[in-house]
Specification:
Order of helices and strands: HHHHH
Number of strands: 0
Shape: flat
Helix content: 55-70%
Number of helices: 5
Main location: nucleus
Mean pLDDT: 77
Largest sheet: none
Number of domains: 2
Distance between the termini: 57 Å
GO molecular function: transcription coregulator activity
Low-confidence stretches: 1-16
Protein name: Mediator of RNA polymerase II transcription subunit 30
Strand content: under 5%
Pfam families: Med30
Subcellular location: Nucleus
Length: about 170
């Protein structure tokens, strides 16, 4: 990826000519997130390459490998680890820049994605009208009912599959 991560320093565009300074001002959080996504993909790719190199490496079971092959693999691993370090730094800078640019969207991940089998915590309701509160309760109740219906259907499908599998094994 040839896109450079935003650097901490005196500020965007200091010492840059007009068009480049304007371009840095127009960087949006969405663009930074796209760069961050590409960076995460690079991290995953590098990590997979490291695992492939280590999987191909033989343990020293008394067999002498050529020193050149060992040095080559070791050099590749060192380069991949160095690149991973740089990619994680870039990702950290992108994250910090996005946090700076979007202070109004700062929610903890627990608020965004509930855990399985966890009852939703009491959600902050800021001076909502009684109609909105009642509608929220109704929607939550409908969701609970639909979840229960889905559970019943899944149980029925599971039982049906068990019966079909049992019949198939009896035929053989």
């Amino acid at each position: 990826m040839s896109t450079a991560a935003p650097q901490k320093g005196p500020g965007p565009g200091v010492g840059l000519p007009g068009p480049q300074q304007q371009q840095l001002r127009e960087i949006s959080p969405v663009y930074l997130c796209r760069i961050g996504q590409e960076t995460v993909q690079d991290i995953v790719t590098r990590t997979m390459e490291i695992f492939q190199i280590t999987r191909a490496t033989q343990l020293p079971n008394g067999v002498t490998q050529s020193q050149a092959a060992y040095q080559d693999r070791f050099g590749k691993l060192q380069e991949h680890l160095r690149q991973l370090t740089l990619l994680f730094r870039k990702l950290r800078l992108l994250y910090e820049r996005c946090v700076e640019m979007t202070p109004d969207l700062q929610e903890s991940p627990a608020e965004l994605v509930p855990y399985v089998c966890e009852e939703p915590e009491a959600v902050r309701m800021e001076s909502c009208s009684p109609a909105v509160i009642q509608e929220r309760r109704e929607v939550l109740e409908k969701v609970r009912q639909k979840n229960q219906e889905m559970k019943v259907l899944m149980d029925q499908m599971r039982n049906l599959l068990w019966d079909v599998n049992a019949m198939l094994t009896m035929r053989k």
